[in-house]
Amino acid sequence: MTEAVCPFTNGLPTFRERPLDPPEVFARTRAERPIHPMTFPDGHRGWLVTGYDQARAILTDPRFSSKGSLKHLAFPSDRAADFDLEKDMPPGQFEHMDPPDHTRYRKLLTGQFTLRRMKQLAPRIERIAADHVEAIQRKGPPADLVHDFAVPLSAQVICELLGIPVADQERFEADSAKLLSLDVTPQEAMGALGNIIGLLGELAARKQAEPGDDLLSGLATGGELSPPELIGVALLLLVAGHETTANMLALGTYTLLREPEQLALLRADESLVEGAVEELLRFLTIVHIGVQRTPLEDIEMGGEVLKAGETVLLHLPSTNRDPERFPDPDRLDITRRAIGHLTFSHGIHQCLGQQLARIELRVGYTALLRAFPDLRLAEPADAIPMRSNMTIYGVHRLPVAW
Fold it and tell me: CA 277, CA 81: separation in Å to the nearest integer?
């Protein structure tokens, strides 16, 4: 590996000097060396990728493996020694698999997440959003849009899709947050994981005995998955489908309230919401730790030699701010044609639920702006606590008034 002065000697910084922008060190690194040496907290020597073209190429190159992508954590954590995600997670975590294993799981689910099927869910999502908006209106200001809107909306949508009873939502919400926290102890993380697996195990048994008209019932009775595999697939869909959308709903609203000109554009023309969602996805990129790959052989790319077995971390917030791909990338512009961003990854591991997320975001933002013409932050913008201590970025709470 080429020697260089490395600003990343103990993992990635997650604190943002400006809450809506990635730490400044990433932009400097991308300009100087978009594929940069990196030392992981456990001492492993690997690479950090901040350039758009390089990241996109890696995500589509079969010589880069997704297996072992949880072996070297990118952030300082006791979990590296005491919490082996590859060993402790149930089978079925296909985002960390390569073909043909990945293909097998993905094929079972692809038909459930087509754009056509997701559009059929839109009226129900609109009703769920309206119910939560009406509850906020009855309660009156101030409201916390994280706990009163974003979290319950996304949780209810994914629970109805999977077939998880509403009564079980609170059982997984707190544990899901712990699982994604960078601060919890290995024991707390393991406890949270055990709780969610226990809940899903109970649910899988019920679906097997009394199937309903939902995704998990179809998987439970289809004969393709063992009970542990069903739990693993359900875990992935539940946590990923809930946490990402909830945080984009809240952080996107916070961002619009901080950007009055962009908010005014969207209020004046609701047809801009589709483009606004894409731009917010690009601009915010809430998966702020990134995704990892491992070369299966020595690969030369961008003037560097990535050796077999070295961990390559793709920092998606940086790739989505690459000026070579997105002109004036640090400016939010909801009229921008932001297609091609890597927020949902790319290639065979591109997010399975991306169309569902897009519909939830369009519906959620539209419902809020229609119901609250004078929506505003109830506290100074800089006082809002950011989720720098979580693997999914966002706001811990979002107090608003109207």
Answer: 39
DSSP 322: -
Do the Cβ atoms of 22 and 288 come closer than 8 Å? yes
pLDDT the model gives residue 4: 43
Buried b (16+ CB within 10 A) or exposed e, 202-216: ebbebbeeebeebbb
Dihedral angle computed from the Cα positions of residues 388, 143, 122 and 170, in that order, rounded to the nearest 10 degrees: 70
Strands (E), 220-281: none
CA atoms within 13 A on the CB side of 125: 26
Neighbours of 139 (CB within 10 A): 10
> Look-up: residue for tokens 């809450």?
19
What pTM was computed for the model? 0.93
Tokens of 125: 């999502």
Q: Is the dihedral of CA 115, 118, 120, 126 positive or negative?
A: negative
In 56-204, where do the E strands start and end? Answer: 64-65, 143-144
Q: By C-alpha distance, which of 289, 277, 291, 290 is closest to 248?
A: 277
Domain at 24-395, CATH class? mainly alpha
Long-range contacts of 8-13 (CB under 8 A, 24+ apart): 8/36, 8/37, 8/38, 8/39, 8/48, 9/39, 10/39, 10/41, 10/76, 11/40, 11/41, 11/73, 11/74, 11/75, 11/76, 12/48, 12/74, 12/75, 12/289, 12/290, 12/313, 12/315
Kindly list the domain boundaries of the chain, sorted by start residue.
24-395
The pLDDT score that the predictor gives to residue 187 is: 84
Segment-wise mean pLDDT, segments of 10 residues, the chain, 402 residues: 53 86 94 94 91 98 87 66 62 90 92 87 97 98 97 94 85 84 84 91 91 91 90 90 94 98 97 98 94 96 95 96 98 96 96 95 98 97 94 96 98
